[in-house]
Amino acid sequence: MAITIVPKEKQANGQFNGGAIMEKKPIGFPQDGGGGVKPYSNLFYWAHAWSENGSVIGEHPHKAFEILSFVLEGDIEHYDSKLRGWKPLKKGDVQIIRAGSGISHAEKVNAKSEIFQIWFDPNLEKTILEPATYNDYSADKFPVEQQNGITVRTLKGENSPLEMDTEGVTIKEFTLTEGHHKLPLSKDSIYSVFVLNGTVLAENNLMNKGDYAIIKELESVDFSASVESKLFVIETPLSPSYRTYAEMYL
After folding, report:
1. Angle at 49 between CA 45 and CA 52, to 5 degrees
2. What per-residue confidence (pLDDT) applies to 82?
3. 59/4 Cα distance (integer angstroms)
4. Which residue from 66, 46, 54, 62 is spatially nearest to 19, judged by alpha carbons?
5. Which of 29, 53, 112, 247 has its CA 20 to 30 A from that of 15?
6. Distance of alpha carbon 103 from alpha carbon 59, whole angstroms
7. What letter would DSSP give residue 30?
8. pLDDT tens, position by position, 93-137
9. Residues 6+ apart with CB under 8 A from 214
10. Per-residue DSSP letters for 48-86?
11. What is the pLDDT of residues 14-66, one digit of tens each?
12. What gap in Å lies between CA 44 and CA 40, rounded to an integer?
């Protein structure tokens, strides 16, 4: 099937500290259950997290994966075993942790704040041998342009400062005006689409805020927006050049 829709209510659930931080997971861990899909391409995990009153995800370790945090609303704070101090990130900012041979970190999701945390597999057999690194990128560093009536903010791709080891990744935010829009695609890629705001029809498949879609085997996709709508879109390879963790172990 060229388009698979995963509605918000069918995504896997998560929470921290008795519900102080809540999560929906379009791509969850195996133990999460629910309707979250399994890892695919070199995209391993995707959590949408938010907090009404603010809370802390305590220090915990990571290895080998590339872990990206996108601040969608409000602000968060980050601590890791290299930085050894708390660093703030605000709406529109992006952080990457290249976990390498190992790093520990903690996060504060402050009141009225919302984030994505997304894990990529950059060929773990190689990255686990490298020292951990991280970078923060402020919102004003990402290029914004108009393309046929669509506002495109490039988070990973041409003219973006974000550097990743994971191959073939492009990340963009599309703001669609009310009406019909056609986005070109590559048949060599998989497109993961999250509706940040608004309501759209994707090839006549209804998607509301919080819904998720996987699109492949198409050369273009038609979106019809009933109101101004914002999409978060990740392009990854249909077939990475290496065996991913999910292929080997899940």
Report:
1. 170
2. 79
3. 35
4. 54
5. 247
6. 10
7. G
8. 999 999 999 999 999 999 999 999 999 999 999 999 999 999 999
9. 3, 4, 6, 37, 40, 190, 191, 192, 193
10. EEEESS-EEEEEEEE-SSEEEEEEEESEEEEEETTT-S-
11. 999 999 999 999 999 988 876 679 999 999 999 999 999 999 999 999 999 99
12. 7
State the Cα–Cα distance between residues 241 and 161, nearest whole angstrom: 24
Residue 180 host element (H or E): strand 179-184
Hunting for tokens 């085997």 — which residue is that?
Answer: 217
Nearest to 39 by CA among 215, 245, 216, 237: 245
Distance from first CA to last CA of the chain, Å, rounded? 22
Dihedral, 74, 176, 156, 241 alpha carbons, nearest 10:
130
In this prediction, residue 35 carries a pLDDT of 67
